[in-house]
Amino acid sequence: MTRELSPCGTPAAYSRHLSAGEEPCEACRAANTHRVAQQRAKAVQDDVERLERGRRLGREPERGLLGELRRLQGIVTAALEVAKPNEVAALVKQAAALAEQIEQEDRKREDEDDPLAQFLHGPPTIVPIQRKEERHG
After folding, report:
1. For residue 60, what is the DSSP state?
2. How confident is the prediction for the chain on average, in pLDDT?
3. Alpha carbon distance 14, 36 (integer Å)
4. pTM across the whole model
5. Which long-range contacts (CB under 8 A, 24 or more apart) does 82-91 make?
6. Distance (Å, rounded) from C-alpha 23 to C-alpha 90?
7. I need a labelling partner for 113 at 20 to 30 A (CA). Which of 21, 56, 90, 137 fits?
8. CA-to-CA distance for 32 and 6, rounded, in angstroms?
9. Buried/exposed 10-45: b ≥16 CB within 10 Å, e otherwise
10. Which residue has the higher pLDDT, 91 or 136?
11. What is the 3-state secondary structure (H, E, C) of the chain?
12. CA angle 72, 101, 115 (to 5 degrees)
């Protein structure tokens, strides 16, 4: 039992022409050109969506170092999604370094908001001791 061949004017027929060592007909060339253009347009659109998703992840209302670190983390995350295999290791290393810096900055920020942490980690506070007669006037 033989398979039915795709008619000319399709990407499959274009490939068949090439496999047979033939020059593809005009209809097959047009079909293949259209297929390639669609694939490229979809790849570009996918890249744009990944980058936008990374930018959204990286955009924080925070200012300063922590906000910048999170913005960079979003960019690295988006880059990882479209990276070539030989680029992945370096990007993973950058992502890990950024995650570590963000964790350190988060800890600092928590300490700033936590009075107990400020007491334990902050500079010593010297409170003068008052004698009984000084307290009662």
Report:
1. -
2. 80
3. 12
4. 0.40
5. 82/47, 82/50, 82/51
6. 44
7. 56
8. 13
9. beebbebbeeeeeebeeebeebbeeeeeeeeeeeee
10. 91
11. CCCCCCCCCCHHHHHHHHHCCCCCCHHHHHHHHHHHHHHHHHHHHHHHHHHHHHHHHHCCCCCHHHHHHHHHHHHHHHHHHHCCHHHHHHHHHHHHHHHHHHHHHHHHHHHHHCHHHHHHHCCCCCCCCCCHHHHHC
12. 120
Q: Is a pLDDT exceeding 50 seen at residue 104?
A: yes
CA dist., res. 90 & res. 29, Å (int): 40
Q: Can you tell me which residue has the tokens 């004698």?
A: 131
Cα(94)–Cα(88) distance, integer angstroms: 10
